[in-house]
Give the backbone structure.
Amino acid sequence: MLSKLVALMFMFAVGSASLGQAGATREPKKRPRDFLTPVGFAAYMKTKAYRQQHEQLEQDFWSRLDSAEQVEVLSQDRNEVMRVIISDPDFLRVAKIRYWGVKHAPEIIPDLIKLITDERIVGLIGFADLMIWERVQAGEFKFYDYHGRVIDDDLSLVAGRASWMLTEITGQRFGEVSIRSLPAQRKKLSELWLAWRQKQKFSPSRG
């Protein structure tokens, strides 16, 4: 329990600003416009959790990606995004597709929900000071004292990536996928997300 509290303290201390890019190049709050306005509207977008998460992603996208990277990320299609999720071990590429995901939520959310029960292992490289807590405890990841980013979902797993992506692009959370998650637990988590999805009723973007 104590270790979990320590992990949460790290997570809230560093936020998501260090995730997926090397360093800030622009002032986050001075972006000229919103880049990640979703192509559809749904009920969850009214929640405080979503608005806070969306604003953080907007700030990161503007401040930490140069113009060429921004175009590259948003010009991807669903097939390329899915390829990264299910087969690319590079953490930075996985982190960047969150931006595409939040903008194209209606298109990608059903796919992500299905992937929560996927049992494939991709592995993870280039993750710098990322800490996936159960892999830290197992001695597979290094523990960084008072810095780094803690993620509960295991991004070495396809299912863990799907779970993390869903939370990152919606601000909602129903559980996590770890190296210890049993198939029955993943199935239950997938069912919770599916029940949530069926209540959303996506409609064309208002913006």
About this structure: The two ends are 43 Å apart (CA to CA). Residues 123 and 156 are 4 Å apart (CA to CA). Strands lie at 40-41, 130-132, 149-151, 203-204.
